[in-house]
Structures are given as C-alpha cells and as structure tokens.
Amino acid sequence: MTTTNREEPGCIEAGILENALVMITVMEKSGKILVWNQAAENITGYSKEEVIGKTTIWKKLYPKKEYRDTVTQQIATILTGKKYFENFETIITTRSGASRIILWNTKESTHKSGPIIVTAGQDITRLRELDAFRDSVIENANVLITVMESGGTIAVWNKAAEEITGYSRAEVIGSRDIWKNLYPDPEYRRTLTRQITGIISTKSYFANFETRIRTKTGESRVISWNTRQIGEDSQQFAIAIGRDITEQKKAEEALLAYMTEMAMRIKQPVGIIRDNLLDITHLIHDRKLSLDEIAMLLDAQVRNAAQIATNVQEFQKAILEKNSEIPEAYRKFLEG
Questions:
Q1: Strand ranges (E), 29-83
Q2: Which of 18, 58, 162, 164 has its CA 20 to 30 A from that of 74?
Q3: Tens digits of residue pLDDT in 115-133
Q4: Residue 16: which of 45, 44, 31, 38 has the closest Cα?
Q5: pLDDT tens readout for residues 65-87
C-alpha cells in the first residue's frame, strides 16, 4: 500500500480560497451563495452560516434600495457587453454598520451543478481614504500645483493654480495651451524653454526657477517653480509646484530701495559729524579748547547723531508698514 503527503488538488484550491486576503465568493446566477471565505466574513461581519445557501446577503450589504437598484443596473449594463466585470467599485454596509469600499472582479465559470460566478472583492477603503487625503492636500495647498503628462498636457490643476492664474480647471485640464496663455510673448517663451531644457539636460528637475507669468486678467506675477518627475518609465508625469513670490519680490525691491536711499541719506550727515570730530580732535591736540568748549562741541555732535538715528528709525517704520511681505529676517533687523 502506497501513501503520499500530497494534498488533493481540490483541497489545495479550497485552502487558497479560504486563506486569501481578499473577499472571495462563489454564487449561482440566481445570487445564491455557494462559497464565502474567511476574508468575506472578516470584511462584512457576516459568517458562512448566515450566508451560504441564501441570496439575502446582498440586501444586507446594500440596505438602501435606491443604491442597490443603481448598483444592480450598473452591473446589468456591464454584463450586456461581456460576461464579467472588473475593477467595479461599490460601497457596502457591514454588519456593524460601517461603510467599506470594495473593488469587485468577477469571472463566470461552470460547475457540475451549472454556471457559477466567482467574485473577488478587495477592500480598498484605506486606499481611497489616502487618495482623498492626498487630493485634499493638493486642492487646499496655498501654492500652484499642476501635474503634466510627458507632452505637457495638464492632468491636475489645483485651486491655488486657478486663483493665481485666473484660469479654471475646465479651461486647462486635458490641454497644453495654458503655457502659451501664461507666457504670451513668443521670445520670452523661447528663452524660458531654452533655460529649462538646459537645466533638465543635467538633472531631471529644477528648483527655485523664477519666471514671470501673465494672468487671465493681464496681471504680471512672479512664480518660483520647483518640479519633480513621477510615475513609472512607461508613464512619466511631471509635478510642478509654483509659489507666487510677486509680493516678496516687491518687498525685496523696496528693501533694496530703502538701503540705497538710507545710504544716501546718512552719507552726508555722517561725513559732517566725522569732519567736525576731526576738527575737535585737532583743536584739542593744539590745546586751543577749554573743557567746557570741548563738552559743548561734543554735545552738538551727539545731538546730530541722535537726529540721524531718529530719521533712520522713522524711515524703517515707514518701509515696514508699506511692505508686509518683507522677509522675517530683514523685518527683525529693521524693527531692531
């Protein structure tokens, strides 16, 4: 008598179905459940004993008739063209009342009892939550975010992109014309293209690349761009993040103007104080001044220096009040 440790094929298949990490059910065309694996129990909360041999599980998973009818109609529409459906998403209600998003794939097969439908349901609730979170972050970011296909066609255009440029998603997504709209001057557009091409030839991204765009209303805005390549080799995308630094640039220009103006304002009076002090020094060396005269002359220079300091502070205050976008480091310096 010969013995073997090999499991029968039917046992192996049953073990695979039972221990799969996705919900697997086998049913007759009438909807009666023949197989309900462990994952199906875990995901839905309904045990085999409650499900197998019955058709009532579908009403429990889709308790709202209107939604159940919608799902049924969608399935019927799909099945008119083929005998299966794939990557079909529905929202089920578990025994505990929780909602789960299930990605369904089916295949029709035959059994000795007749035609059967094998269905695999993957719980993608967490994935969809992460997708929703990612979309929310992109949508609510206060920087322009766009995702482009390899040819420059826009796939994503967030709310900040709409607000900064004035162009809506409907005008942008699926097209590449936005770049001509944002850079209407052909010569400037060609210059930028050459610069970008030169940067990308040495590395696959660029950082803090400043350009001047023209909004839909004709306003000029300065954008600082950062890009990255994303996706697989077969499907490459570029994500571009644009920070509107128009006000910052204005503040920097104002700060530069302030520094230039202040240098001009204090150059002459400081020079006068310097010359006066030199004269006082010479007179002291020649012993031509009394202590009272020295004190009087030095007091005058102190008053002159104090007046310069007051003028500088007033000018600094005016600059700060007029330009709210002055960088924090410079602001602290000016406030000091």
A1: 33-36
A2: 18
A3: 788 899 999 999 888 888 8
A4: 38
A5: 999 999 888 887 877 777 778 89
